[in-house]
Specification:
Blueprint lengths: L14 H9 L5 H19 L7 H16 L11 E5 L26 H8 L3 E6 L11 E2 L3 E2 L15 H9 L4 E6 L5 H7 L2 E4 L13 E4 L2 E4 L4 H6 L1 E6 L2 H11 L25 E5 L9 H16 L3 E5 L3 H18 L3 H7 L2 H18 L5 H22 L3 E5 L16 H10 L1 H5 L7 E9 L2 E8 L5 H13 L9
Parallel strand pairs: 1-2, 1-5, 10-11, 10-12
Antiparallel strand pairs: 3-4, 5-9, 6-9, 6-13, 7-8, 12-14, 13-14
Helix pairs in contact: 2-3, 5-6, 10-12, 10-13, 12-14
């Protein structure tokens, strides 16, 4: 069930099955990489999901992987499995373009910690996945690399900012993808393209990376990142199945004190029986009406969890999530404000227009220029909400929510009139409420509705990723396959 739909080619296989087959010498890493390269050659010219594929480099890595198997070396859990790396993530020898031409001429001198962890697990980087400029839209297009399309419907967004990752996964280019998330950038693209997206607890996966620079008119400028990036942004996996996402998350989990919010090694948690877990369903927070397909997806996920033995209850809204979504629009927006001169100087027209819409939408709640006291009070309130949500969830409760109040948006909807851009901002409350509090969440496909993938989001207590993934697995096990080649 789920997305593992009767593979006939290696590129269709799950990461879990590929790793097992390579370990058992039933197939070689070279064969797997060649299969994925052939699929990229077939599909990427239409979708533009991967923007820097170096076949010779990937095949050389695959040959070394096969030599390790032959030598009887200790193999990591993803040995020989291809994975894409997002263009805003440092990968040695590749420019961290973030979809911006000014960042395209300085290859990274080393890997980000999450890339190091994937390599250590045996994964083979195969292509860079596209993002919007500065990774600041729920759409994936930029003047440097071009537009990424959703393989289900080219007129709909593949999501953003990890839209290249989600599109390439859905099309079968790689079985795994790395992404990052500060406002839904893993979870929303995954849902748009019918795959699984995992946002870990802040600190579980190290966000450390080598210094980043922008080449501006004033010369190279080292980029420093604001508080919300450190407190809210995470690195995490996208995959076609929950089992693969779990495997990749375990591989990426990296105790790292260089990360300002990094944590030491986490103990393995014992499994929790479904019957001991309560799932509280939140369809809406009262700010925007759901599209019928969204309500059907959430109800379908709730029914499958009930069938799996979970105790499912309906909540009539949740003010805490509503307040968290409002706080996101304050804290993220004010942290973006100092970046505006750089965006004006080196960003493309689309990101400038989209950010103008973002600031206009935030101003509806917070005014044109919130003061320092409002900003400080926002951070103080955030800490209170983190505590209250953790007290509510504990280690035996999950929240089930929509992914968004709408199905995947029409391309460039955020560049339309101000009212439409503001509607998107409000519709994305399930994506924005979670990062500002730093909790783990997973989006999982529920099925197809009107020919488009629909999904649901599960949210758990801090560092309860296994509990969340268990519930996501229960949904996947009982859902129809969401696959372009099923």
């Amino acid at each position: 069930m789920g997305n593992a739909a009767h593979p006939t080619e290696l590129w269709q296989c799950t990461a879990t099955d590929l790793a097992a087959a390579i370990r058992a010498r039933e197939v070689s890493a070279v064969e797997v990489v060649r299969s994925c390269l052939a699929r990229i050659e077939e599909t990427n010219p239409r979708l533009n999901a991967l923007v820097d594929v170096r076949p010779d480099e990937a095949l050389a890595d695959a040959r070394r992987a096969d030599e390790a198997v032959a030598a009887g070396a200790d193999l990591g859990p993803l040995h020989g499995v291809p994975v894409s790396i997002k263009v805003n993530t440092e990968q040695r020898g590749y420019a961290t373009t973030n979809g911006v031409a000014a960042f395209a001429h300085r290859p990274a001198e080393g890997d980000a910690a999450c890339v190091t962890a994937l390599r250590r697990s045996g994964a083979i980087p195969l292509g860079r996945s596209n993002s919007p400029a500065f990774s600041l839209r729920w759409f994936t297009t930029n003047d440097l690399h071009g537009r990424t399309l959703n393989p289900w419907d080219h007129g709909r967004t593949p999501g953003g900012s990890s839209g290249g990752a989600s599109s390439s996964l859905a099309a079968g280019m790689t079985p795994l993808a790395q992404g990052n998330d500060i406002g839904g950038s893993i979870r929303f693209p995954a849902a748009c393209c019918g795959v699984v997206g995992v946002r870990p607890t802040v600190g579980r996966v190290s966000d450390w990376a080598p210094p980043a620079f922008a080449d501006t008119a004033d010369g190279p400028v080292e980029l420093d990142f604001p508080p919300t990036v450190h407190a809210c942004a995470v690195q995490g996996p996208l995959a076609r199945t929950v089992a693969d996402a779990r495997l990749a998350l375990r591989a990426m989990t990296t105790p790292d004190v260089r990360h300002p919010h990094g944590v030491p090694a986490l103990p393995e948690r014992a499994g929790t029986a479904a019957g001991a877990v309560t799932v509280s369903v939140v369809h809406s927070i009262g700010t925007v009406d759901n599209h019928p397909a969204v309500d059907r997806a959430v109800s379908g996920a709730a029914a499958r969890l009930s069938d799996a033995g979970y105790k499912v209850e309906e909540l009539d809204g949740m003010p805490l999530l509503a307040e968290a979504a409002r706080l996101w629009s304050l804290l993220i927006t004010e942290d973006l404000r100092p970046m505006l001169p750089l965006v004006e100087q080196v960003g493309d027209e689309a990101i400038r227009t989209a950010l103008a819409g973002h600031f206009a939408a935030a101003a509806v709640t917070w005014g044109e220029r919130p003061g320092l006291e409002t900003y400080i009070n926002g951070w103080a309130r955030r800490a209170t909400l983190v505590t209250r949500l953790q007290e509510f969830l504990g280690s035996d409760r999950l929240l089930l929510t929509p992914v968004c109040a709408e199905p995947p948006f029409e391309q460039d909807a955020d560049l339309a009139e101000e009212a439409r851009a503001g509607r998107l901002f409000t519709a994305m409350w399930p994506m924005t409420a979670v990062p500002v509090l730093g909790f783990p969440a997973v989006t999982v496909p529920v099925g197809l509705d009107g020919g488009l993938p629909v999904g649901a989001q599960l949210i758990g207590g801090r560092f309860e990723e296994e509990l969340v993934l268990d519930a996501a697995q229960a949904v996947e096990d009982r859902a129809p396959a969401v696959s372009l080649w099923a």
